[in-house]
Design goal:
Layout: E1 2-6, H1 11-22, E2 26-31, H2 39-48, E3 54-56, H3 62-71, E4 76-79, H4 86-91, H5 93-113, E5 118-124, H6 147-165, E6 170-176, E7 178-180, H7 199-207, E8 214-217, E9 229-230, E10 232-234, H8 235-251, E11 254-260, E12 266-267, H9 268-279, E13 285-288, H10 303-309, H11 317-330
Parallel strand pairs: 1-2, 1-4, 2-3, 4-5, 5-6, 6-11, 7-10, 8-13
Antiparallel strand pairs: 9-12
The structure holds nicotinamide-adenine-dinucleotide (NAD) and uridine-diphosphate-N-acetylglucosamine.
Length: about 350
């Protein structure tokens, strides 16, 4: 079986490529490297000891997509390609609606023409919006508070509508909670551009002294220590969830939606203190105002993924903070340091 992995050079995509190869599933990576680097592919080859074929191009480019499907035998698609910065999506909504939604429409149309009617899509816990009670369950109503979130709500809907219109389609929406961590090797990981928006990359940049302290966004939430609570999941567990979801997707037609989280809530200060204790590095922080749009608490009900996919997260918070720090230390300048990670 060969899977087209759109966005396969990115943070979650690269870890998923490694998991697919470890399970003897062939891949074809498609990426335009708008938020990643071709060196990632060399590192994946080094880590997997396999060839990682790829095509460089854009899902907005329909002739390019048609050529990819005409020239390669593809059985299914895992679709990561998209923009993900919430703040930027508020400033440049059309950039997000175009890349994420138009890109997905193009992909679905070209897939249908090529008769490849099998897709796993990267959705997000952001679709649970501001008002659902925790733990979040798949059947709860979806909504969003920013253009990025709306792209996920709309794409899920679009994919489900496509499956409803044609029984040959089989589709899975995976709602990720908060992926952090990196492959144990420290050779692939998350590479935010500019100032990180997300908590874990901010912490590692404080730890390596790129930034002098962390701003904790609010300590007056209705949570045990007043700081925001999230469901952090190791990216390697998340990647393995894709392999299980793909296997289920190949076996059973229709649409499915699963939460991929641990089911456990961890506060900002829990994460900071675990990072300090495991890695022996101090993280200076300051409490500042809440970040607009943040909710107090977000964690998954993971029953459905466990029962239907036979998947559950295995790695601990300690693994997550250790592996995030290992990646940051080995790659202070991201992928610029070496081509395949082997000399790092
Ligand atoms: P990422 O930016 O590291 O990876 C996305 C990849 O897609 C990048 O390599 C980028 O170059 C590529 N890409 C973007 N637009 C493209 C286009 N038009 N054509 C071809 N390639 C394109 O992001 P990630 O963290 O790996 O996230 C992957 C997916 O998971 C995204 O859809 C994201 O919205 C979703 N997601 C991420 C998180 C998270 O916290 N990282 C949480 C929930 C959902
Ligand atoms: C954010 C996005 C969400 C996206 C998710 C994964 C927003 C409003 N939400 O979620 O749509 O799906 O990333 O990409 O951007 N925090 C600090 N200081 C920081 C950074 C974060 O205190 O410098 C706190 C936040 O207030 C939150 C927690 O840390 O309580 C986690 O934040 P973050 O990593 O940005 O993830 P989410 O807010 O869950």
């Amino acid at each position: 079986m060969r899977v087209l992995v759109t966005g396969g050079a990115g943070y979650i995509g690269s870890h998923t490529v490694l998991a697919l190869l470890a399970n003897d599933i062939d891949v074809l990576v498609l990426d335009n490297f708008s938020n990643s680097y071709p060196q990632v592919l060399k590192r994946l080859e080094h880590l997997s000891e396999k060839k990682v074929p790829y095509v460089e191009g854009d899902i907005l480019d329909v002739p390019f997509l048609e050529k990819v499907f005409a020239e390669h035998e593809i059985d299914a698609v895992i679709h990561f390609a998209g923009f993900k910065a919430v703040g930027e999506s508020v400033e440049k909504p059309l950039k997000y609606y175009n890349n994420n939604i138009t890109g997905t429409i193009n992909l679905l149309e070209v897939m249908a023409k090529a008769n490849v009617k099998n897709i796993v899509f990267s959705s997000s816990a952001t679709v649970y919006g501001m008002t659902n009670p925790v733990p979040f369950k798949e059947e709860m109503p979806t909504s969003a508070t920013n253009p990025y979130g709306y792209t996920k709500v709309v794409i899920e809907r679009m994919i489900n509508d496509v499956a409803a219109s044609d029984p040959e389609w089989t589709v899975t929406n995976l709602r990720y909670f908060n992926p952090i961590g990196a492959d144990k090797s420290g050779d692939i990981g998350e590479l935010p551009s500019g100032i990180p928006n997300n908590l874990m990359p901010y912490i590692t940049q404080v730890a390596i002294k790129k930034r002098d302290h962390l701003s904790v966004f609010g300590d007056d939430y209705d949570t045990p220590d007043g700081t925001g609570v999230r469901d952090y999941i190791h990216v390697v567990d998340l990647a393995n969830g894709h392999v299980q979801a793909l296997e289920k997707n190949m076996a059973e037609k229709g649409s499915k939606t699963y939460n991929l989280g641990t089911g456990k809530g961890v506060s900002v200060l829990d994460l900071v203190h675990t990072f300090e204790a495991v890695n022996g590095v101090k993280i200076p922080y300051e409490i500042v105002d809440r970040r607009p749009g943040d909710i107090a608490t977000c964690y998954a009900d993971v029953t459905k993924a466990k029962e239907e996919l036979g998947w559950e997260a295995e790695l601990s918070l300690e693994d997550m903070v250790r592996d995030s720090w290992n990646w940051q230390q080995k790659n202070p300048n991201g992928y610029e340091d070496s081509s395949d990670g082997s000399s790092n």
